[in-house]
Amino acid sequence: MKKDPRNFRPESLMMSYGYEPALSEGAIKCPIFQTSTFVFKTAEEGKRFFQVATGQVEPDPGEELGLIYSRLNNPDLEILENRLCLWDKADQAAVFESGMSAISTMLLAHLKPGDVLLHSQPLYGGTDHFVNHVLRDFGVDTIGYEPEDDCDDIRARIKKQGAENKVKMIYIETPANPTNHLFDIACAAEIAEELSTEDRQVLLAVDNTYMGPIWQHPLEHGADLVIYSATKYIGGHSDVIAGACLGKEDAMKPVRKLRTFLGSMAGPWTGWLLMRSLETLKVRMDQQAENARHVADFLRDHPKVEKVHYLGHLTEADGKQFEIYKKQCKTGGAMLSFNVKGGEAEAFRFLNNMQLAHLAVSLGSTESLAEHPATMTHADVDPSLKEQMGITSNLIRLSVGIEHYEDQIADLAQALDKV
Ligand SMILES: *Cc1c(COP(=O)(O)O)cnc(C)c1O
């Protein structure tokens, strides 16, 4: 008997799930459906597709939405979205032309003037700008909280602002970039639950770019929505900008709808590239996590390194951070940062002398990437907040790639020698 595909692991399904070769001349791989529109067999069929697409009628059991127009649906995006759902056990997914368009579309779909957004701090620079400038201009207020805050501190912050009836969404990014501080997803879910009323559900959205979709599954811990910059691990080859939002059906419906009207969906070529990337996602990320452990151990013992910020090094002595790590992270990941002894000059000398790793922002790619958060990715952050967050002039962020770890370590060693 054929094994029920739902019992196969996601990595076993990434090559074939959701694609029917017979519909594409027997091609083993999904072709790129580089087309703007789709031909209806009859006018009646076109009418039916639109009735389903616009929600005028409920689809019959097993009826899939017919292909209409590539801003609404396209096979490369639909198959990709079905595959993305498998890792996080999500009901629905939507793929976007960038991580930022996934984030902005998702936030605009669920927030309206007068609502308050509670968010973890620090946030990815682009998200921080969108939340604290663009959303504010639309009349959405924000409350930030920090890694040191426990559940009661967060409750107190909401109360202090008199926002108990106004918080509409909680948005967290964990681990935080670039310091790897962790935020408790289950605690945020608990607060969202407490603030929800019968006719006002408070949603929890988690930006899982740093750990996902392999090493952390926010939906399991009570989140409603998960966000990815698919530019990072999902794409994984530094050759595409894309994003994804996935989650529970009720939370996803408004997101998919707004995507249609903002037109922020990804194109078929991006969909095809990401499907190709998903086939190797698990092997890439497993190798990167293993390499990161070796690299982090090497850096910890190096005389020119002051401190390494790597999740896999957390111990009981780290208290709450270690507890969160045990609860929600499957590995230490492959992002780390470290302080070289000295300041900007020493950090720059290190960066300028790397031979294997590249000096570039972004992360999660096959090649190792290093950068200087204080003057690059986090250049915009308020100086006092930078200090408080530990984004100092001697901090370097490293995204560990798939090169042999001994070669990576040899490269780091020779660059540190020049410091
Ligand atoms: C890169 C990144 C984003 C933005 O994604 P883009 O694909 O660059 O638009 C959002 N969140 C995190 C955590 C990121 O690293």
Describe the overall structure:
With 419 residues, the protein is of the alpha/beta class. The protein contains 14 helices and twelve strands. It starts with 9 loop residues before the first helix and ends with a helix. The model has no long low-confidence stretch (mean pLDDT 95). Bound molecules: pyridoxal-5'-phosphate. Residues 98-100, 124, 126-127, 173, 177, 207, 209-210, 229, 231-232, 241, 243 line the site of pyridoxal-5'-phosphate. Pyridoxal-5'-phosphate is lined by residues 98-100, 124, 126-127, 173, 177, 207, 209-210, 229, 231-232, 241, 243.
List the helices and strands and how they pair.
Elements (H helix, E strand, L loop, with lengths): L9 H4 L29 H11 L21 H14 L3 E5 L2 H12 L5 E5 L4 H13 L3 E5 L5 H10 L6 E7 L11 H11 L7 E5 L17 E5 L13 E5 L1 H14 L5 H12 L1 H20 L4 E5 L10 H9 L6 E6 L3 H9 L5 E2 L9 E3 L11 H7 L5 E5 L5 H13 L2
Parallel strand pairs: 2-3, 2-4, 4-5, 5-6, 10-11
Antiparallel strand pairs: 1-7, 6-7, 8-9, 9-12, 11-12
The chain binds pyridoxal-5'-phosphate.
Largest sheet: 7 strands, mixed
The CATH superfamily label of the domain at 281-417 reads Aspartate Aminotransferase, domain 1
Could you tell me the number of beta strands?
12
The CATH topology assignment of the domain at 281-417 is Aspartate Aminotransferase, domain 1
What is the helix content?
Answer: 25-40%
β-strand percent reads 5-15%
Summed over residues and divided by their number, the pLDDT gives a mean of 95
Radius of gyration: 22 Å
Enumerate the spans where pLDDT stays under 50 for 5 or more consecutive residues. Answer: none
CATH architectural arrangement of the domain at 281-417: Alpha-Beta Complex
